[in-house]
Specification:
The complex is a heterodimer of chains A (336) and B (404). By secondary structure, chain A is mainly alpha-helical. Chain A has helices at residues 2-39, 46-66, 77-105, 110-132, 149-156, 166-188, 190-200, 202-207, 212-237, 244-259, 264-282, 286-292, 311-325, and strands spanning 145-147, 164-165. Chain A starts with a helix and ends in an 11-residue tail after the last helix. Chain B has 404 residues and is α/β, with parallel strands linked by helices. In chain B, the strands form four sheets. In chain B, strands 7-6-8-9-10-15-16 form a seven-stranded mixed β-sheet, with helices on both faces. In chain B, helix 8 (218-227) crosses helix 9 and helix 12 runs parallel beside helix 15 (355-363). Classes of the chains: A mainly alpha (336), B alpha/beta (404).
Chain lengths: 336, 404
């Protein structure tokens, strides 16, 4: 019984939140990695693109709710997702046309596009504040739990409960669908193959008759879709606060680089590495150990490696370590 | 001895004599004299939206005393000066000006803790002038040497820690986890709660800070849950990190009951969290004294809003004038010892709007217990004991169940 309790504790506080957060990071890191392989710059505006996607989802949800349409117990925002994906893609294409295209045509250095992306980031975050304001918004209007900790305890008779939120399972399921679709697209379709060819060798791809503008159009299409889904899921699971997406950029880049930037599988693995290390390092193990070892052996203080205040520092540390020790990441990606 | 030095000595003696007689004339109260009170609040700066009403409340007390006709001086006049709330140098020179050129007898103010300390140490103590602040709540002011010149009608932040510790134990919560917002308010309050709770036999299992404005508080909630406890004390803000920690703790099923200090009390919190918050308790400054209602009516009929710290401001000004009446002198060194006497029992209770009655009783040599608008009760070195309302979240509403 004691051991089962210890397991329930780990599942409740580490496995489920870690999987959810990992999925959100993986979706973000995929977007960053795809821009990096095809357009060859680090897109710092990706966090704000996610925020933009979440914002359009909320605005459309308001319109849908105004007409009284709902799909209870699922949150209404799922209905809004397809439309907001289209809007986010259009926004991506617009900023590409007016910001990035010019430098691509001039064959500018990649670092210039990176600086441009920082400009886009500030512009987008300003636009979001104008459109929806900086306030905190709860957007989950569906059923909150699939199973709550209290109910779980009643059913199983354990002292530790496991709670599974509906938003968490939606996050995991939608992420799996999105990733499966992405890999199918990249590996099986002609457009996907031409994208990979373009990223492997730009000149050879152009000589084989692949159209640059087509490849770039699909790149933004995928990036916009991923950003909108990731942003909306993050907002649904937590709550929508525009400026928290700026804080997400760091773990997302850490995930992409740890996994090996430019490698889609690496981005997913990297997302989970970052999310689980953040949780495992800031978790305090007192209660967990109290189920496993006699209470007399338990130390007095808190068994925590780092205080939760340092959560954001963990992605920094991993990022620095990877860049020093294994710059290509877990899966052989490109060098930054 | 030369003629010049003789002349100098004579001049000094004459000046001394003149000063002695004029000083005497100002200090002893006489019926045909006008005295001035300084009202030093931050009319510009971070709390400029509150100060106009606070000043009006103090001036209301002055008008009431003037209308009574039984005050020891013929007329009282309020002189405003800007404390800026944050700029100690500007506040000090403003107070200096009031004392040297306006010859004020006492200071109503200042407002913010920092400038209040600066004025007290640089001006009030140097010139021996009484000051009563309505809104400086820093615990540091309790221990500052003040030559018995400083009083406040607002409770120290440390006081809420005592109230919370007592309430928790009274409700049977023997162990508690605590999280606080990482700033002076959160840290000060958390330290005070921990000190008082543990000295009364409670146990704080963990005291961890949280940052406001993060997206996810799951890790914070996890660390708090592992330490355990009967209740989670959340010394934060209701629209920021405090709410996030509560939501994350409920999601993980780690705490059922929460303690909410003043920064967490508001209807937006139970609305955002929902049913799960029902049964949580809290405290917020407040009083059920009839004085508060009376003051609200008086404020309304005088066309200003009875907002934050207006009651305390009215009481500060009233206390100064009542103490002058009790000492039969407008000299700070004479009436500073009377402030506590008129504020506390025994004596007849005096409510807002009854200052005339209070003055009359005092001039007859009787004792009064000034209750005023904020239920004034001065403790320790002359600060308000503070009145707190006990809050219960019931049916998704903030309800008041009692007063402490």
């Amino acid at each position: 019984m004691e051991i089962i309790n210890a397991f329930a504790l780990i599942i409740n506080y580490i496995i489920i939140p870690g999987l959810t957060y990992g999925c959100q990071l993986a979706l973000g890191a995929l977007g960053v990695t795809i821009i990096y392989t095809v357009l060859r710059f680090s897109n710092f505006a990706h966090g704000e693109l996610m925020s933009f996607g979440a914002m359009t989802s909320i605005l459309i949800t308001w319109i849908i709710s105004y007409f009284g349409i709902s799909i209870f117990p699922l949150p209404t925002i799922i209905l809004a997702l397809p439309i907001s994906i289209l809007i986010t893609i259009s926004y991506c294409l617009l900023i590409d046309k007016y910001c990035f295209q010019y430098h691509r045509k001039k064959n500018s250095k990649n670092v210039i596009s990176l600086i441009v992306s920082i400009g886009v980031m500030f512009f987008t975050s300003g636009l979001i504040r104008v459109l929806i304001g900086p306030n905190d918004r709860t957007i989950n209007d569906g059923e909150r739990f699939i199973i709550s900790a209290r109910k779980f305890k009643e059913i199983t008779g354990l002292t530790e409960g496991i709670s599974l939120k509906l938003s968490q399972s939606i996050t995991i399921i939608v992420s799996i669908i999105a990733v499966a679709f992405l890999f199918w697209f990249l590996n099986k379709t002609k457009t996907g193959k031409s994208m990979r060819a373009y990223s492997d060798n730009k000149d050879l791809a152009l000589l084989s008759g692949i159209k640059t503008e087509n490849v770039i159009f699909y790149t933004w299409l995928i990036t916009g879709t991923l950003a909108c889904i990731a942003g909306t899921l993050y907002g649904l699971d937590k709550s929508y606060k525009p400026f928290t997406y700026l804080q997400l950029v760091l773990p997302i880049f850490a995930a992409a680089i740890v996994g090996g930037i430019g490698n889609p599988i690496g981005a997913i693995i990297g997302g989970f590495v970052i999310s689980f290390s953040e949780l495992l390092i800031t978790f305090s193990y007192n209660k967990f150990l109290s189920y496993l070892i006699p209470i007399n052996f338990l130390p007095e203080g808190s068994l925590q490696i780092l205080s939760t205040d340092y959560k954001i520092a963990i992605s920094f540390i991993i990022l620095v370590l990877v860049l020093i020790l294994k710059p290509t990441g877990i899966y052989k990606g490109k060098l930054l | 001895m030369s003629n010049k030095s003789i002349l100098a000595i004579i001049l000094i003696i004459v000046a001394g004599v003149v000063y002695y007689f004029t000083k005497d004339k100002i200090d002893t109260a006489s019926k045909d004299e006008t005295i001035k009170l300084g009202i030093i609040y931050g009319y510009t700066g971070p709390i400029e939206s509150l100060t106009p009403d606070m000043a009006k409340a103090a001036e209301l007390a002055i008008t009431e005393v003037n209308d009574s006709g039984s005050f020891i001086a013929n007329k009282v006049e309020g002189v405003r000066a800007d404390s800026t709330c944050i700029d100690a140098a500007a506040a000090t020179s403003a107070a200096e000006r009031l004392i040297t050129s306006d010859k004020i007898k006492a200071i109503v103010g200042a407002d913010c803790s920092g400038v209040t300390t600066a004025i007290l140490q640089n001006v009030a103590m140097a010139n021996g002038v009484v000051m009563i602040s309505p809104s400086a709540t820093s615990p540091a002011l309790s221990d500052l040497p003040d030559n018995d010149l400083f009083f406040r009608t607002a409770p120290s932040d440390a006081r809420q820690g005592v109230i919370i510790a007592e309430l928790l134990l009274q409700k049977g919560f023997k162990t508690a986890a605590m999280t606080y917002t990482n700033n002076d308010y959160g840290k000060g309050l958390a330290d005070s709660i921990q000190k008082n709770y543990e000295s009364r036999g409670g146990k704080i299992t963990i005291s961890a800070s949280h940052e406001d404005g993060k997206g996810d508080y799951g890790a914070e909630a996890g660390a708090l849950a592992q330490a355990g406890g009967d209740i989670l004390i959340v010394a934060g803000y209701l629209d920021k990190g405090g709410k996030g920690v509560i939501q994350a703790s409920l999601d993980a099923g780690s705490f059922k009951t929460f303690f909410l200090p003043d920064g967490m009390i508001g209807d937006s919190l139970p609305t955002a969290i929902g049913d799960d918050l029902n049964g949580s308790i809290g405290t917020v400054p407040g009083t059920d004294s009839p004085g508060a209602n009376k003051f609200n009516e008086i404020a309304k009929s005088n066309n200003f809003k009875s907002g934050p710290y207006t009651k305390e401001s009215y009481d500060s000004a009233a206390l100064i004038m009542l103490a002058m009446q009790a000492a039969n002198s407008t000299n700070s060194n004479d009436f500073k010892s009377k402030v506590m006497d008129v504020a506390n029992a025994p004596g007849e209770k005096i409510f807002p709007g009854e200052l005339a009655k209070g003055l009359k009783l005092l001039s007859e040599g009787k004792e009064i217990d000034y209750v005023g608008a904020s239920a004034v009760e001065l403790i320790g070195g002359g600060e308000s004991a503070g009145n707190f309302a006990e809050i219960l979240i019931d049916n998704q509403k903030v309800t008041t169940v009692g007063y402490k």
